[in-house]
Amino acid sequence: MAKQKLKNQLDTFQWVGVSSRGKKLEGELTGSSIALVKAQLRKQGITPSKVKKKPKPLFGTGQKRISPMDIAILTRQIATMLMAGVALVQAIDMIADGSDNPSVKNLLTSIGEEVKAGHPLSDALRKHPRYFDDLYCDLVASGEQSGALDRIFDRVALYKEKAEALKSKIKKALFYPIAVILVAIIVTSILLIFVVPQFQSIFEGFGAELPAFTLFVIAISEFLQKYWWVAALAIGIGGYIFKEAHMRSKDLRNNVDKAILKIPVIGMILNKAAVARYARTLSTTFAAGVPLVDALDSAAGASGNAVYRDAILEIKAEVSSGNPMNWAMRNSNIFPDMVIQMVAIGEESGSLDDMLAKVATIYEQEVDDAVDGLSALLEPMIMAVLGVLIGGLIIAMYLPIFQLGNVV
User: Fold this and answer.
1) Which fold has domain 68-163?
2) Helix 352-407 and helix 212-248: axis angle, to 10°?
């Protein structure tokens, strides 16, 4: 185990050597040790004279992370090369050499070494669970067993691309209202801390009683001036406590997932996204030859919401006992009738994977349309909220001036 762990820790080495024709060469090569790098150079007809580990960049400017989109891209590249008749090992080496991300290059080099050593690709991928989950590895394993690795990689690439596109749409839907709320909080805080005190100093010379609304705003302003750090600290500690509790408490995560689905507009988008993920995952796994019960396990894990996860696990239990999947989905009381009817047609016609793929396409398009319309729908609501906050502060500050004008 220790040897295997050491093998997976690849470094970049800088080398200087002489070719078989006596020409001086230099470059960089990835490997697990200096000895192995020298051996690789000799295989290429180069006599190394100096090999040293490349120093890591300073001040945190290290290698770029490997994002899920990077995994989707390299999956598509492997699928394209395999379908073009390129050997698996050669395809991995070519993609590694052409990658601009050193982290991706190291990852592919490690996987390529495992495959060259005679290990199945699925086993090599399982050693990197951070980037390749069980669903990904299981699909690759089924492709190796069936001898259709190129088609499986094509399906996996499509699945990853659709999943990342859907994730991007959901982030887009959530980003806009959250960003506006944060801006509103920041602007309101600035007004309360810096602008309201200027009016307060003017009001002190009036010698008259201020309106209740103005006194209320001034009280908030004085509190923030004295204890703004307490409010900021409370928000930070509260966020940290919630994050830790969310990670440790399954009940809290379930309750949060239930509450999110009930948020106006946003909840509708998240519901459609969960149905799309369910259908896309089930279609991909079932078409790859994975048994339906195991495919439902994968779909539950990929649902992204505890409500749908629990419902899918209940469907799995009913399907395991011999009930049709459309009947089990209807009993869950969570899936739309159109989805249940299309699944029923797929089960009757023997084309369940095709029907699920169509369901996924329909709901992915609905999510896309909903996100596009979200901005137009939220703009009036956001303007109203901003108007109440900013306008309320302005009215509170000008009420005493209006009253003074009436008295005069």
Assistant:
1) Receptor-associated Protein (1.20.81)
2) 160
Which of 173, 214, 223, 179 lies closest to 367, judged by CA? 173
Q: Which residue has the tokens 């797929």?
A: 346
Structure tokens at 7: 């093998």
Note the pLDDT tens digit of each residue in 127-156.
888 888 888 888 888 888 877 888 888 888
Superfamily of domain 164-408: Type II secretion system (T2SS), domain F (1.20.81.30)
Where is 12: in which H helix or E strand?
A: strand 11-19
pTM: 0.66
E strand residue ranges, 195-331: none
**Is 27 exposed, middle or buried, given 0-12, 13-18 or 19+ CB atoms closer than 10 A?**
exposed
Torsion sign, CA atoms 53, 54, 59, 64: negative
Of the ranges 19-33, 206-220, 336-350, the best mean pLDDT one: 336-350
Q: What is the per-residue pLDDT for 245?
A: 84
